[in-house]
């Protein structure tokens, strides 16, 4: 009688464990990169949205999601520590779907912005997903999984333009908005089916509602003031009042957090030099890179109208084809960074990546007028972008404990979001100084695009210099990870 050989029990378990880990990675990659994909799709669709709704306020099409995401983020990360990361992940995803649905069916610009604002709550999923990665994977998977999650930005950059080009060319911006809604629903199903709940929770406690409202309100007020500054006047009393009110609110937040028993973000964590320096450097470096799409996408997709608009006027499909090598570079750099982080000082990696973005976009300030120049700029900047985005979550793992992971990711995402919003809005302001309004739509001249790129270069350079403040920390292979495993 013939016999069928079966692998030893430990081999079967190892296979099941690997399969499970792969499914968890897929679910988390989809969840994390959907945030980036929506930002990319929004950037590519914004030119058509502006023309359709005849608005000069197109900046708020992308800023509304960042604004509400920033406001609700502190509540989300605190709730994750108290009630479970997966549970909060599902709630944020569900609300994101509701917002995307409202935006997809909106018939006026105000309703569209309301939907975009609700959808912004989905932004809280990214720091929670990175925190889950530390909790549920064994040590040997943590660096690779974190690199893949961050490296997915390359997949988004690679596939996003092709996807959006097809959607825009065949279905218009409505097709983009409906795709967002469907993708959020898929994210909810993947998390519900495959992602395990993290067993790491805060030991009791309650929500710091006052602290969250003060922090979210203060940050939101600053962002709103910057967004309206060009209309109010930068030296107007209204602008000064909003900024002063925001700063007072943030000062009150700091004072309140010192007195409450269970602060939103524990001062003991944020006062440690390795923590606050990493949070500061990564927020500026990554936030500035997230904002560069505002300039690049408008440069590429805005039409060429003599004396009015000096965009390249490409279709979505041509944009995808030309930028695909750049996206491939981001993927390679990000995955390679995830593997390299176990052996090389993360400060060196972050500094190198940030310096490459300065070089790439610095070249782009002068050379951005045809496909060859866009590719040349993008290959250098894309390499740096992949490195920066991949090393950020790994550096957080290296400087905090497992119990602090979700909160630290939340602070970093909050800081990065604020940097992205501020740099994005300033880019709109800078570009509008050299442009014109035609039939209710803001267009930009080449000088505006050049100055917008210079703004991004300067902010990336600041991020590069801030790396010098970071003290040496444990490498990834020395950090305490894989607790649930």
How does this model look, in words?
The protein contains 15 helices and four strands. The protein has 485 residues and is mainly α. A two-stranded antiparallel ribbon has the order 1-2. Helix 2 packs parallel to helix 4 and helix 3 runs antiparallel to helix 5. The radius of gyration is 22 Å and the shape is globular. 56% of the residues are buried.
First and last CA, distance: 41 Å
- Tell me how many strands there are: 4
- Helix proportion range: over 70%
Spatially, the strands of the biggest sheet line up as: 1-2
In short:
With 485 residues, the protein is mainly alpha-helical. It has 15 helices and four strands. The protein has a two-stranded antiparallel ribbon. A two-stranded antiparallel ribbon has the order 3-4.
List keywords for this structure.
mainly alpha, two-stranded antiparallel ribbon, 485 residues, disordered N terminus, globular, 15 helices, 77% helix, 4 strands
List the helices and strands and how they pair.
Layout: H1 9-53, H2 59-83, H3 85-105, H4 109-119, H5 125-136, H6 139-194, H7 209-232, H8 237-259, H9 267-270, H10 273-301, E1 304-305, E2 309-310, H11 316-340, H12 346-364, H13 371-399, H14 405-432, E3 435-438, E4 441-444, H15 446-466
Antiparallel strand pairs: 1-2, 3-4
Helix pairs in contact: 1-5, 1-6, 1-10, 2-3, 2-4, 2-7, 2-14, 3-4, 3-5, 3-6, 5-14, 6-11, 6-13, 7-8, 7-14, 10-13, 10-14, 10-15, 11-13, 12-13, 12-15, 14-15
């Amino acid at each position: 009688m013939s016999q069928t050989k079966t692998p030893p029990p430990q081999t079967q378990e190892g296979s099941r464990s690997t399969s499970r880990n792969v499914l968890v990675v897929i679910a988390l990659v989809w969840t994390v990169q959907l945030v980036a994909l929506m930002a990319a799709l929004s950037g590519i669709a914004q030119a058509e949205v502006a023309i359709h709704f005849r608005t000069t306020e197109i900046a708020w099409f992308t800023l509304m999601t960042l604004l509400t995401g920033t406001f609700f983020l502190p509540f989300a990360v605190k709730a994750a520590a108290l009630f479970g990361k997966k549970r909060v992940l599902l709630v944020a995803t569900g609300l994101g779907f509701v917002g995307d649905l409202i935006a997809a069916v909106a018939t006026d610009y105000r309703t569209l912005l309301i939907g975009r604002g609700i959808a912004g709550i989905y932004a809280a999923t990214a720091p929670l997903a990175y925190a889950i990665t530390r909790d549920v994977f064994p040590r040997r998977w943590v660096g690779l999984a974190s690199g893949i999650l961050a490296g997915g930005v390359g997949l988004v950059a690679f596939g996003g333009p092709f996807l959006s080009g097809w959607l825009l060319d065949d279905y218009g911006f409505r097709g983009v908005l409906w795709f967002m809604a469907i993708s959020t629903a898929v994210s909810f199903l993947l998390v519900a089916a495959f992602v395990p709940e993290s067993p790491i929770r805060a030991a009791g406690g309650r929500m710091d509602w006052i602290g969250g409202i003060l922090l979210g309100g203060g940050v939101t007020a600053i962002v709103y003031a910057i967004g309206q500054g060009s209309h109010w006047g930068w030296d107007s009393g209204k602008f000064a009042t909003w900024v002063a009110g925001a700063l007072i609110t943030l000062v009150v937040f700091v004072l309140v957090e010192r007195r409450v028993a269970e602060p939103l973000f524990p001062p003991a964590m944020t006062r440690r030099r390795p923590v606050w320096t990493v949070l500061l450097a990564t927020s500026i470096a990554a936030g500035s890179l997230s904002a560069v799409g505002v300039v690049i996408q408008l440069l590429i997709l805005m039409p060429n109208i003599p004396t009015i608009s000096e965009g390249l006027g490409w279709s979505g499909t041509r944009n995808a084809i030309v930028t695909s090598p750049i996206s491939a570079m981001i993927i390679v750099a990000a995955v390679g960074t995830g593997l390299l982080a176990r052996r090389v000082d993360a400060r060196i990696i972050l500094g190198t990546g940030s310096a490459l973005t300065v070089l790439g976009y610095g070249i782009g300030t002068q050379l951005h007028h045809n496909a060859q120049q866009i590719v040349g700029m993008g290959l250098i900047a894309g390499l740096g972008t992949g490195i920066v985005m991949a090393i950020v979550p790994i550096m957080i793992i290296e400087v905090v404990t497992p119990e602090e992971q979700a909160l630290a990711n939340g602070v970093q995402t909050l800081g990065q979001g604020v940097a992205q919003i501020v740099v994005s809005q300033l880019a709109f302001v800078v570009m509008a100084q050299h442009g014109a309004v035609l039939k209710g739509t803001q267009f930009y001249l080449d000088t505006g695009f050049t100055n917008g790129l210079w703004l991004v270069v300067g902010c990336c350079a600041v991020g590069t210099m801030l790396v010098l403040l970071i003290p040496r920390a444990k490498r990834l292979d020395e950090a305490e990870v894989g607790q649930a495993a």
